[in-house]
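Please, structure for the following, as tokens.
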Amino acid sequence: MLRFMPVGDSQTIGSAGEHTWRYRMWQHLRKTYGGPFALVGPRETLYDKATDAPTSYEYADPDPAFPRAHLAGWGEGWLHMAPLIGGAVRSCRADVLLVSLGLIDLGFYTNAEQTAQNVRSFVAEARSANPRVRIVVLPVIPNIRAEAEEPFATEVARFNELLAKALADLDEPRSPLLLTSPPPSYDIHLDTYDGTHPNASGEHKIAEAFAGAMYQAWDLGEPYAP
């Protein structure tokens, strides 16, 4: 059994009425991965905008077979997840982490250098729980604030450079770290509903970025097909 844990912020937890890229990834793995697998994590809910809390189970597809488990939170970043990831990996016996973080950190809490240091802390904590854990990381993807504010766009670009360096520095054979390419042809005007959060096409493109990286680097699954 290969256990995947989605880790992320609002783009990963999703909100009431959405499928989420987690669901798209589950569909992809179900079709292409040739063995038993599960999505794992200590949380299951979507964010409910009406109550301003992660309390919703109203997924767009109520298929009971979909494993809703994750470690994602609206407004959470590397800063918040680094102290949590060790316990989550340990309790859920995660083998592969699919991580999409950074936008919240840069927007509200830490600069590029500080955020990159939290990436390193996150990796160390994950490995303390599972020395063979594999980690796939999505860079910070296009968003409305980066389009509107040049200084923020510069900070995002700087962080993505530091993220690539951190993953290269920390990569090791028994616990490989993989940086995905940005989602192909991702356009905030077509692939999000508000400039930040993915709509259906955006969900597919984020899932495709993770799936493509794992297929190319580890021969896991097959090329993504929506």
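The first strand starts at residue 2 and ends at 8. The chain has one domain: 2-218.
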